[in-house]
Design brief:
The longest helix is centred in the last third of the chain and has 34 residues. The chain is globular, with a radius of gyration of 16 Å. The chain has one domain. With 180 residues, it is an all-alpha fold. The chain starts with 8 loop residues before the first helix and ends with a helix. It contains 7 helices and no strands.
């Protein structure tokens, strides 16, 4: 039987990609929303696959959390594919989809806090809790005000994607430290 590595390679890859996407968002603020729609589409697909894999890994647990990861993952993948396939439409719909994606991902991560504490420790638990509560607040603000979303999407998106990337990398590294 092959022993699985304790290192979260998928979390590490996702974290690095999210940080790069966040930096790109700051570096190219004059880019059209269509370019952002495609980039965020790829990020949504990757994060959705990560949520689906998390569901597969924790399906033996009962409760609301694992099912929420599956639903969040499917919605993220569907939203991501739509953004990549139809970037012009995606740019227009981005003001609605982006806040929903933010909130779905945050809810998914919050539903796994117990698992995160077991795997990554109390410090990572607290960081993930605070990060995702802030993400939920920003998601609701963007959902309630599309003008707010259009005017601040690059700033919020860049910062939040970098923070999500750091969260993913720290989770991966803390998994490595706990399994050795």
């Amino acid at each position: 039987m092959r022993r699985r590595s304790g290192f979260g390679w998928l979390e590490l890859l996702t974290g690095i990609l999210l940080i790069l996407l966040g930096i790109w968002t700051f570096a190219k603020p004059d880019h059209a929303l269509t370019g952002m729609a495609v980039a965020y589409g790829f990020a949504a697909v990757i994060m959705g696959v990560t949520d689906i894999i998390l569901f597969i890994q924790v399906e033996r647990y009962t409760g609301f959390g694992p099912i929420l990861a599956l639903v969040s993952g499917i919605l993220s993948v569907m939203s991501g594919i739509m953004l990549v396939a139809y970037p012009r439409t995606g740019a227009m719909v981005l003001t609605l989809l982006f806040p929903i994606w933010f909130m779905a991902h945050c809810i998914s991560r919050l539903s796994h806090l117990h698992h995160i504490r077991l795997v990554a420790g109390s410090g990572m638990y607290t960081f993930t809790l605070v990060t995702n509560i802030i993400g939920l607040i920003l998601g609701f603000m963007m959902l309630l005000s599309p003008v707010f979303t259009l005017s601040t999407i690059r700033c919020f998106a860049g910062i939040y994607l970098i923070v999500l990337g750091i969260d993913g990398i720290l989770t991966a590294l803390s998994r490595m430290g706990r399994r050795r």
